[in-house]
Amino acid sequence: GAVVSQHPSWVICKSGTSVKIECRSLDFQATTMFWYRQFPKQSLMLMATSNEGSKATYEQGVEKDKFLINHASLTLSTLTVTSAHPEDSSFYICSASRRAQYNEQFFGPGTRLTVL
Amino acid sequence: EDKVVQSPLSLVVHEGDTVTLNCSYEVTNFRSLLWYKQEKKAPTFLFMLTSSGIEKKSGRLSSILDKKELSSILNITATQTGDSAIYLCAGRHGSSNTGKLIFGQGTTLQVKP
Q: How many CB pairs under 8 A join A and B?
């Protein structure tokens, strides 16, 4: 299979704190991982693309300093929401592509972030 | 600007009905179009279409791509309540090997018993 996990599955934090979300490919090496955000009743919006060992490529309008992405290994990428605010509350989903099948993306189960 | 548009945005049918969901795309260096089903959590993969006119089928679901019209349809026959979900289509951007996907807004399908 091609299983992607995310941790935590949900998190509640206070405004101004930072939250780290992990995305792991459990049974394959993911050369590329993607981070999406989904607001209620809306589609997935790509935030950034991250390749192992290099800096992430952010989509227009996504603040690099606010959403820190690290892809230190072929099985792990992290998204850190820094100084979170209530408007950052959303469903964050990662996906991963295998080296040989870059045209398929396997999605993680998502992380529900609520900022109070 | 890359864009994927789905229609209708929502649909309510009864079990046994057949539905057709539409997706049109404008994606730079288009490589492929993907359909996903999203229930409560992350999307699950349904189909990937790269060639025009070739139908892909999985059980009661089928899909086809029309590169001339820059569109795709997803058909579901003999719908069941378990088909209730959001159906997302995404165009894959092909400028590199990153597999970047541009998602449409989704079609929310509700199948009533």
A: 59
